[in-house]
Amino acid sequence: MTQTIEPLTDYIPKPGEYYEISPGILWIRMPLPFRLNHINLWLIEEVDGWVLIDSGINDDSTKAYWERIFNNVLKGKPITRLICTHAHPDHIGLGGWIQEKYGTKLLITREEWLFGRMVAAGNMKGEKSYYDYLLRIGCKQSELKDYEAHIATADQLYYDVPFQFERLRDGSEVKIAGKSWKVIVGLGHSQEHACLYCPELEVLIAGDQVLPKITPTIMVQAYEPQENPLLDFLESNKKLRGLPEFVVVLPSHNVPFTGLNVRLDQYIIHHMERLNVVLEACVKPLSGMEVSRFLFPQDLDLHGKFFAIGETMAHIKYLEYEGKLSCSSDRDGVERYIKA
Ligand SMILES: [Zn+2]
Predict the structure, then answer these.
(1) Does the predicted TM-score (pTM) go above 0.85?
(2) What does the alpha-carbon distance between residue 281 and residue 294 come to, in Å, rounded to a whole number?
(3) Tens digit of each residue's pLDDT (9 = 90 or more) over 289-304
(4) Interval 87-91 mean pLDDT
(5) Other C-beta atoms within 10 Å of 122: how many?
């Protein structure tokens, strides 16, 4: 039987409310102040308290919805553990705030914890190497300030990332409400992203590693300009292939669905198409910024431009490592890529 991607339900819980999506798993949706305007979180009840997967972003509106859930849903029990799939601010932004209230333990992979601590501390601001990188990939001097704005405010999206954590490792198991969940680490979207799979329930908490409608953002970051995150993403997704055919996927954005392998296939096709667009554009030498206009011809806001250039460089680096693009630096210091 050919599998398709099927949403599990038409119902979407409103912020501050919940919906039991799978036995014992409460689906909560919180707002985000971006074009991607929501995130899904998951709550599982135990005898002494609740286990929460991901926290929502640090803003007043999310805190207000959380207060409603604290009062109306948790039956007076604390959130004892917060498991963060990764350290992007929509996933861990309120981790410190929830910990302050309940003494909640944080469970996260080590690289994600380090990344979250770094960004939340404001360490990305005013870094000269960041501007040098932008100039090298073809950003105009006059545009630098626009890109800076994105980094300069990143720390505000975090309340705090807790100082202590319990490490999630690839292949390790976490017991939640008497059931065993296996940690499956995925790369490419973030540093060391943890998915959680429960064989007994045949449920995968997928974080941002597998999303039904949009593709996870795969970006080269200025702090690691030689990385190859697209290869990391496609390679590490192979680990998800062995899960049962009709595993229920609980993604951080859009709605729960079945059809995991179809979605993984779509990612391969999607990125191969995007790689072809880049190769066809690079019949003459182009900078990263110039290539990004082929991949993203639409008008983008600042937020969109930041993601577009990161995604573009991810495709360029993939092709460069495959030997299909070669890079040369011009006298103006800008790196340009041409079909090898
Ligand atoms: Zn993310």
Answers:
(1) yes
(2) 7
(3) 999 999 999 988 877 8
(4) 97
(5) 15
> How remote is the CA of residue 221 from the centroid of ligand 1, in Å?
14
State the distance from the centre of ligand 1 to the C-alpha of 174, rounded, in angstroms.
Answer: 21
Choose among 314, 270, 266, 271: nearest CA to 292: 314
CA 75 to ligand 1 center in whole angstroms? 30
Torsion angle defined by CA atoms of residues 153, 231, 270 and 35, in that order, rounded to the nearest 10 degrees: -10
Query: For residues 267 and 261, what is the distance between their CA atoms, to the nearest angstrom?
Result: 10
Ligand 1: centre distance to CA 190 (Å): 7
pLDDT at position 239, please? 97
Domains of the chain plus CATH, in order, are 6-259 (3.60.15.10)
Give burial (CB, 10 Å; 0-12/13-18/19+) of 87: buried
256/253 Cα distance (integer angstroms): 9
Assigned token pair, 68: 């409603």
Token pair for residue 337?
């890529």
Contact between residue 70 and residue 18 where contact means Cβ atoms under 8 Å apart = no
Q: What percent of the chain has pLDDT over 70?
A: 99
Cα angle 116, 15, 96; round to 5: 25
pLDDT in tens, 45-55: 999 999 999 99
**Using an 8 Å Cβ cutoff, are 39 and 29 in contact?**
yes
Mean pLDDT (whole number) for 113-135: 89
- Taking the centre of ligand 1 as the mean of its atom positions, its distance from the CA of residue 331, in whole angstroms, is 37
Indicate the DSSP class of residue 286. B
Ligand 1 centroid to Cα of residue 191, in Å, is 10
Query: Tokens 């990305």 correspond to what residue?
Result: 124
